[in-house]
């Protein structure tokens, strides 16, 4: 009987550990990854100005905290601009 109780305790410990790890992943890690996926897909389908000149009043290449960013916008919403990392 003691052996069965020991195996049950181990099963409970494993189940609780998996639950804690799953809660941490879906509560902390996944929102960060999901936001990064959305931002990358938004930048992949955007129209960007990575030059030195302005296009339609939108600035070109910008340096923010030592990184180069392009000013981008969506074709459907040209007034809403956002920055994407320069990949040139």
Name the features.
88 residues; alpha+beta; 2 domains
Helix-strand layout with pairing:
Elements: H1 2-44, E1 47-49, E2 62-64, E3 67-73, E4 81-85
Brief overview:
The protein is α+β, with helices and mostly antiparallel strands and 88 residues long. The protein has one helix spanning 2-44; strands at residues 47-49, 62-64, 67-73, 81-85.
Question: Could you walk me through the main structural features you see in this protein, from its secondary elements to its overall organization?
Answer:
This protein has 88 residues and is an alpha+beta fold. It has two domains: 1-44; 46-88, no CATH class. Helices cover 49% and strands 20% of the residues. Strands 1, 2, 3 and 4 form a four-stranded antiparallel sheet that branches. A hairpin with a 7-residue loop joins strand 3 and strand 4.
Q: Radius of gyration in whole Å, from Cα?
A: 24 Å
Strand fraction equals: 15-25%
Give the rounded overall mean pLDDT: 82
- Count of helical stretches: 1
Q: What separation lies between the terminal Cα atoms?
A: 68 Å
Poorly predicted regions: none
Helix content: 40-55%
The biggest beta sheet reads:
4 strands, antiparallel
Domains (count): 2
Can you write the helix and strand succession as a string? HEEEE
Give the CA-based shape: rod-shaped
Structural class: alpha+beta
* Strand runs, count: 4
């Amino acid at each position: 009987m003691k052996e069965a109780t020991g195996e049950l305790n181990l099963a409970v410990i494993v189940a609780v550990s998996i639950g804690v790890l799953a809660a941490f992943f879906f509560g902390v890690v996944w929102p960060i990854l999901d936001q990064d996926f959305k931002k990358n897909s938004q930048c992949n389908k955007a129209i960007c100005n990575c030059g030195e000149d302005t296009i339609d009043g939108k600035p070109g290449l910008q340096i923010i905290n030592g990184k180069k960013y392009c000013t981008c916008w969506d074709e459907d919403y040209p007034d809403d601009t956002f920055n994407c990392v320069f990949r040139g």
